[in-house]
Design a protein that fits this description.
Elements: H1 4-18, H2 20-23, E1 32-34, E2 51-54, E3 57-59, E4 63-65, H3 73-89, E5 93-97, H4 99-103, H5 109-117, E6 123-128, H6 133-143, E7 147-152, H7 154-159, H8 170-179, E8 184-188, H9 195-203, E9 208-210, H10 219-226, H11 242-252, E10 257-261, H12 267-275, E11 280-283, H13 285-294, H14 296-316, E12 330-332, H15 334-342
Parallel strand pairs: 4-11, 5-6, 6-7, 7-8, 8-9, 9-10, 10-11
Antiparallel strand pairs: 1-12, 2-3
Helix pairs in contact: 1-10, 3-5, 3-14, 9-11, 12-14, 13-14
Length: 346
């Protein structure tokens, strides 16, 4: 019989799929419209879609498999399938939170499988921003990770009946950035960041920040479904969308690499995120939903389509690379423009 924590991981997988359509209602990237260039003066095979996930950590494509799961037999199967595809297409892959494996050694194989199936690829270990230095190093060692993701999940924890209620993270983040030998990425789990968050993290020495906005996997919905003590349905739409969070990050004017995740469902979304300032894009819920409902062959086809489509879309914008998307032109919907004006982001 699997442990209580393993059962919770299975619940997360099941509820993430169950609530997928509901969570993706009102697609936030529809509020960003790209301006077509009739004279691209560019060829598709000349477009460079490589980028940096973190300083010194170059990746051949601008999107990667973002943190999803680990800690149960079902999670091990999912991680194995994802890691095989990551290896096939040279996609970085992040693990789910490693905390469960540090507490329960029997869960560790469900994380190790990521590196086993992708021995030479880029792997990110994931753990809470409250993790001690010892725990952070153990997470990196478990996956022989190339970078560490520290996740910020205050809204999720507050809804969880068994969740944390204290969130003094910044000093610990600064310490881990200083002492660890791998790049540290600080990420939200789907509620977005504001300009002050980005500035404070950058001032603490964080050089890669994933603003991870609302629009993808909704942990408010998931944890509220698990909570039999109190109903938090009224905050199902809590947080900033990913486009809103990217606009917030732009105003922060830090030198940090800004990563986008949350509600990415197409190659066009990847490009739009790049136009709004993302140096790389993480995808979790969309890939997971296809994998669970249709199988790894279906996800394989989707990845081929994305890799073929992204350079073609970039060509239509008349730029030469994914990093050059910051020069592409765009307009915002009235709602997103109103948000940006009220927040003094424009």
């Amino acid at each position: 019989m699997e442990s209580r924590q393993a059962h919770r991981k299975n619940e997360h997988l099941s509820l993430a799929t169950k609530y997928y359509q509901q969570a993706h209602a009102g697609h936030p990237f529809d509020q960003v419209r790209l301006i077509h260039t009739a004279l691209p003066e560019e060829a598709v095979d000349e477009v460079d879609i490589s980028t940096e996930l973190a300083p010194g950590l170059k990746i051949p494509v601008p999107f990667y498999i973002e943190a999803m799961t680990g800690g149960s037999k079902q999670a091990m199967k999912v991680n194995r399938q994802l890691a095989r595809l990551a290896a096939k297409y040279q996609l970085p892959m992040a693990s789910g939170s490693v905390s469960v494996a540090l507490n329960e050694p029997a869960c560790r194989d469900s994380f190790r499988v990521i590196r086993e199936e992708n021995p030479t690829g880029i792997v990110l270990a994931n753990i809470s921003a409250s993790a001690s230095e010892e725990e952070a190093r153990a997470a990196i060692e478990l996956l022989n990770a190339d970078a560490l993701e520290l996740h910020l999940n205050a809204a999720q924890e507050l809804i969880m009946p068994e969740g944390d209620r204290s969130f003094h993270w910044l000093d610990n983040i600064q310490h881990l950035v200083q002492v660890l030998d791998v790049p540290v990425i600080v990420k939200e789990v789907g509620f977005g960041m504001n300009k002050t968050d980005v500035s404070r993290l950058a001032n603490a020495g964080v050089t890669s920040i994933n603003v991870s906005g609302r629009g993808g996997t909704n942990f408010a919905m998931i944890e509220n479904r698990r909570n039999n003590q109190q109903d938090f349905a009224e905050i199902a739409n809590w947080g900033q969308t990913t486009p809103e969070a990217l606009l917030e990050a732009h105003v922060a004017k830090s030198d940090a690499h800004i990563i986008a995740s949350g509600g990415i469902t197409s190659p066009l979304d990847v490009v739009k995120a790049g136009v709004l300032g993302a140096s790389a894009v993480g995808v979790a819920g969309y890939f997971l939903n296809i994998l669970i409902k249709e199988g790894p062959d279906a996800l394989d086809k989707v990845l081929v389509d994305w890799l073929g489509s992204i350079p073609r879309i970039i060509t239509l914008l008349g730029v030469e690379s994914f990093s050059g998307l910051q020069w592409a032109e765009y307009v915002l919907s009235p709602d997103l423009q109103n948000y940006a004006k009220q927040r003094r982001l424009l």
